[in-house]
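Hey, resending since the last one bounced:
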Amino acid sequence: MNIIKKTISILKNEGIKSFLLRSIGYFLRKLYKIYARIMDFRIGKVSVDKKKQSRYKDIGAYATESTNYIWLKKLFSSYPLKPDDVFIDVGCGEGRVLTYLYLKKFRNKMTGIELDEEIAQIAKQRTKKCDNIHICQGNVLEKGEVFKDATAVYLFNPFNAEILSSFIEMIEENVDHRLTLYYANDIHRKVLDKREKWYIIRRNIIKNMITPKRAYSIYLYWPDKE
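The structure tokens again:
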């Protein structure tokens, strides 16, 4: 009964066009959920589409949220990884980005860094058959050595602006070569926009009927540029 009342209200207040658009959007979102579940199960055998609040909010960590597959396709098609890139996902959660790239036949070294022990364990379980993926549990600010050979790093807004600033400083202390930073849901991009040696390669907004509106930025860290 509530659905009927809601439908009548939309038709009355917004018209048939709005009703049709809402209906199409609802149908597409339902289809996407099925698609995401299938993609998750292809390697990990478990759905990772549920957002989980962080147990580490007191130190600046945000909720664990698996990046939407549509965003991943848009992001990595706008600036593809090179076959020899060494890839790190910071705040990898349950490993969706890593398994997505694996399904896309990326076979060079990949590392996921996850603060939460329980979530890191899920990522390890999901990626145990992927020989080129390693899950590293702990605070990323204490993992400088892991980044020494990295050439591509991914963030889905895993922490606040203060931690992001400390993270960028850590990169600058440990990386002496060019590095691409994929920053999805780039809420704190001003931290990077004002830093020397970080150059914007791409910036865009992903908006459609299926996914929430989100912006992303892709940066090139170029430490030896004159």
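Strands lie at 87-90, 110-114, 133-137, 152-156, 179-184, 198-206, 214-221.

Sorry for the duplicate.
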